[in-house]
Amino acid sequence: MSKKKLWLRAAASAAVLTLALTGCGGSDEGDGATTDKGGSASQEQDKGQGEEQPEEEKGGGELAAGEKATSEFDEDGTKVTYEIAAQKVDVGTAEDTKKLVSDPKKAAGLVPAVAHVEFTVKDGGPVADYPDAGREIEVYADGQRGTILIGASDDAPGCEKSTDVKDWKAGESHVFCDTYMVPEGAKELTVQWAADRDADPYIWTFENS
Fold first, then answer.
1. Are strands 61-63 and 202-207 parallel, antiparallel or unpaired?
2. Which of 198, 155, 143 is nearest to 179 (CA)?
3. For a designed S-S bond to 85, which of 68, 171, 182, 197 qualifies (C-beta 3.0 to 4.6 A apart)?
C-alpha cells in the first residue's frame, strides 16, 4: 500500500487545507498529496484464464447507490475483508469553495463533493488503528477525476475520522468520507473505490440534480 500511517497522522492534524491541483483542469502547483490510481469506468473481462472465479473475488464493477461490494484489503499487513457501500455525495456551492480553499482563485468553477462510504469489517482483523481503506475513495464528475481536498471531510456531518477508529472488529461499521473538488454543474458523479491501484474499481453512480 502506498499510504503510510505517518502520512495519515500528519493529514489529520493539518491546520490548513491544501488544494491539490491535479485533475479537473487544475495545474500541478502546490504541495497537496494526491493518489492517481488510474481508475476506469470500464472493466476488462478475463477470457479463458483457467476456472472462472466468483464475481466477488474478481473485484470491480458498476453498482447502484448504496449497493454493497465485498473486497479484501491489506491494512498495514493485516488482511481484512470489507463490505463497502457508497451512500451519497453531498455537493456544495461556490460559497463553500471560498470557505474551504485557501486561494479560491485556483478553484474557480469548482465546488466540493463529499463522498460518504460505509465500511463494515466482514472478516479478518481486528484493525488496530488508523484504517487505510477510506483513503482509497475517489470522486469522478462526468467521467473526469476530481481534485482531492485534504482534510475537508474531517468535520463534515455524518463522517468519521479514521484516526479515531481503534480495534475495529468484524461486524462493526464506520462511515468514511473524502472531499473532491468537481466542476460546478456536473451532471453525473461517481464514487470509486479499489483495493489497490492494479485492481478494477467498484463504481457507484449518483445523479447531480
1. parallel
2. 155
3. 68
